[in-house]
Write a structure and sequence with these properties.
By secondary structure, the protein is mainly α. 57% of the residues lie in helices and 0% in strands. The radius of gyration is 17 Å and the shape is elongated. Keywords: Membrane, Transmembrane, Transmembrane helix.
């Protein structure tokens, strides 16, 4: 549990920090959901979550360029689920 938060709570904070019109709006939403967190922490966790995602993407790109990722039918005989969430 990084940051003293479960992954679900951290991703929820980052989600609302990113999609709300402001961090203040995200704060209002999260407080309404019972997530008691400061405005500064919402901002910090949102940016940190984004940096983790960018670093992960860069790592995957580099590993692909170096040939370290599997090619071909990696999902053959695997169950794959795709979904789309509409608002």
């Amino acid at each position: 549990m990084s940051e003293g938060l479960t992954p679900l709570v951290w991703s929820t904070i980052a989600q609302y920090g990113a999609i709300a019109s402001s961090f203040e709006a995200a704060y209002t939403i999260l407080i309404g959901w019972g997530i008691n967190i400061s405005l500064k922490r919402i901002e910090r966790l949102t940016y940190q979550f984004g940096k983790i995602g960018i670093n992960l993407r860069q790592s995957k790109i580099l590993n692909r360029q170096l040939g370290n990722l599997p090619e071909g039918n990696v999902l053959k005989d695997q169950r794959e689920v795709k979904s789309c969430r509409w608002r």
